[in-house]
Amino acid sequence: MVSVADIVGLLVVVGVNTAVAALATRFLRVQLTTRWGAVVYVVVLVPAVQLLVTLGLTGPLGLGPDLGSSLTVVSVAVALPFALGVAFDYFWMPTPAEVELPERLERS
């Protein structure tokens, strides 16, 4: 039986990985000038970072329940938050070109 602490731990892992995906996607979209460069880096780098975060949160900290198989862990703790984070950045946030910066930051 899954305890409440395990469910909360799993929600923490999913929430942290969703935030990592959204912030990393935004960072790469702002820093890279080409559209395809950002897409390639997001698809390659963000899941790798999420996997490391998942290993750190579930290993030493012991958050989340035993999900049974590694495919389930990757699906629930990496793929789902990746999809949510990227969708959040691409569909909810304005594109980097639409964001107006203060004058002192534009000159730099």
Order of helix and strand elements from N to C terminus: HHHH
Poorly predicted tracts of residues:
none
For this structure, the quaternary state is single chain
Radius of gyration: 16 Å
Overall 3D shape: elongated
Number of helices: 4
Question: CA-to-CA gap between the ends?
Answer: 56 Å
Briefly note the structural class of the backbone. Answer: mainly alpha
Give the biggest sheet: none
Helix content: over 70%
* Strand runs, count: 0
Strand content: under 5%
Mean pLDDT: 90
Organism: Halococcus dombrowskii
Transmembrane segments: 6-24, 36-57, 69-92
InterPro entries: DUF7991
Pfam families: DUF7991
Kindly describe this structure.
Keywords: Membrane, Transmembrane, Transmembrane helix. It comes from Halococcus dombrowskii. The chain crosses the membrane at residues 6-24, 36-57, 69-92. This protein is an all-alpha fold. It is built from four helices and no strands. Helix 1 (4-31) runs antiparallel to helix 2, helix 1 packs across helix 3 and helix 2 crosses helix 3. It is elongated, with a radius of gyration of 16 Å.
